[in-house]
Amino acid sequence: MLLDAHCHVDRFPNPESIAAACERQRVTTVAVTNLPSHFKVGNQHVGGLQYVKLALGFHPLAVGKQHGELEEFLRLLPVAAFVGEIGLDYSKEGASTKREQLATFRAIAEALMGTQKFVTIHSRGAEDAVLDVLAEFQIQNPVLHWYSGTLAVLERAVEQGCFFSLNPAMIRSKKGQGIIARIPRARILTETDGPYVKIGSRSAEPSDVRGVVEFLAREWNVPLSEAIGQVFENFRIIVGEATQG
Question: Cys-Cys crosslink for 4: which of 99, 109, 173, 206, Cβ 3.0 to 4.6 Å?
Fold first, then answer.
């Protein structure tokens, strides 16, 4: 049993075979989407699967290009147990739409307030701003996917109750390893961010989270089974509370 808490299944050339592999290999996979319209289409294909959990998303880099999608997101939110990818991107790529991104993220966070769902969040270059919104609307157990901010802001995120999903790119970089070392074990999940993260020359697939959890086992000096168990216990805390909500 493995966990991929953030994978763009629909962005692979062969999404059906990726989803089938998750079922066959028993890799619990949060299949994030970039737009609510993608969620609607995807639900027709993976809605009945056991291990693939489709998430309702509105990627921050798509906010400035899409009209009417926020209204669709808010309409679909009550039926979605998993949410993502949402958030902010204040990198050079997203700088021109900062205002629109923030307004959209605030609207989504306000709609999430008082609910308990699994929420996976993009925060590149906007970590403090993301945490401000999460705190304002009291979002429970948010998951910061591929955190790449400062250690000072990381400490703030931990204090706010955030979880963090780690991918193969993070365990290969010195900065990523430094971040991982500062995250409490009880807040760690695993992800691939496939197909955008690469393993050698190929796109990372959900089963590649095994390499991440093997890294964690070595870092924690525990058996692989214990590291896998810790990750799943962390996931169950979030999903269990979401179910109760």
Answer: 206
**159 and 121 in contact (C-beta within 8 Å)?**
no
Q: Please choose, from the candidates 165, 159, 109, 118, the residue with its C-alpha nearest in 3D space to the C-alpha of residue 138.
A: 109
Give dist(CA 38, CA 202) in Å, integer. 24
Inter-residue contact 82 to 53 (CB < 8 Å):
yes
CB-based contact 194:146 (threshold 8 Å): no
| 243 pLDDT more than 80 | no
Q: Provide the 3-class DSSP secondary structure of residue 61.
A: helix
Buried b (16+ CB within 10 A) or exposed e, 71-101: ebbbebbeebbbbbbbbbbbeeebeebbeeb
Structure tokens at 14: 């062969």
Q: Which amino acid is at 220?
A: W
- Which SS3 state, helix, strand or coil, does residue 159 take? helix
pLDDT number for residue 241: 55
Q: For residue 37, with 0-12 CB atoms within 10 Å meaning exposed, 13-18 middle and 19 or more buried, which class applies? A: middle
Pairing of strands 27-31, 2-7: parallel
State the first-to-last Cα distance of the chain, in angstroms, to the nearest integer.
Answer: 25
Instruction: Please give the tally of structural domains in the chain.
Output: 1
pLDDT tens digits, 70-125 = 999 999 999 999 999 999 999 999 999 999 999 999 999 999 999 989 999 999 99
pLDDT per residue as tens digits for the range 42-52: 888 887 899 99
